[in-house]
Every structure is written in C-alpha cells, then in structure tokens.
Fold this protein.
Amino acid sequence: MAAALPYADLVGAQDPLDLLASTPGRIAELVRGWDARRWSGTYAPGKWTAAQLVLHLAQDEIGLCNRIRLALTVEDYVVQPYDGARWVALESPTEPETALAAYLALRRLNLVLYERLTPDQRARPIPHPEMGEISIEWILRTLAGHDLHHLRHLQVAERLARDPDPP
Ligand code: NI
C-alpha cells in the first residue's frame, strides 16, 4: 500500500521543487543575526530549541536525500529508518551557524539532483519497512513539507523570544 504523505496540508498544490528551492532562504532570513538567547529559545515547553531545529533540518537533508541517491543506484534498495530525535541528541550542541550553513549548502547541492530527476525516477517505488511503499516523489514532497513544518516552529520561537508573555 502506498504510504500517506506527511505535511500534505502544508505543501498543498505547490510544486515541491519550488518549495525546496525557496524555503531555506526564508529560514535563513528569519534567523539572520540571531544571538545565543534566540537560538536557545523554543516554540513550546520541552521541545527542540531553534538551534536544534536547524540541526535537524541539516540532518534530514542528509538522511532523506541519501535515500534518493541509494534508491537510484542500489539494486533492491530498502529504506533504512532512523530516529531523528536520536540524531539531534547525538549532535547537540552544534553551533547553529554551522548547522544552518550545512543545511543551505546541502540543499543547494541536492537541488541539482532533485531538478535532474526524470518523471520515471520520481515515480520509482521504494519499500519502506515502517511506512509501506514510498517513492522519490514522496520523499521530495515530504522534505518540502518538512521544511515548512519546522519554519513554522522557528517563526513561533521568534515570536516568543520577542514577546514571551503575549496577552
Ligand atoms: Ni522534523
């Protein structure tokens, strides 16, 4: 069975490649000039800090785009799931500027690959042991929605840092 698309409500009818190209710039713009206090803020009690959110975005750019490379080059490739929370814990703390630079550079590199994918490649089915059957298209749409999902978190963190006690 084909796996449901996470973040489908955020992506809607937008072109996932357009979003993948544009959202990192929106995130970079939002966090421009942030100091340590801003980076240590969060969007809700007990959740990842802004610094960890940016680290998570860089890590998922590695994890998800690697699935695309492997799906295109490995016979009978099956997705290897990973625990994103454990990845963040493993590399916290990381300088947010380092994580942000990695996220932006990786996305630029990966977009070259994303934009070259043929419709056949994008439609290629990939077995996922937890989600059922996914595809490269599924990964692209998930990644595009994932950016927006965490952009919202950063926007909330930014608002709370400015005004921790809204009326
Ligand atoms: Ni996430």
Notes: The mean pLDDT is 96.
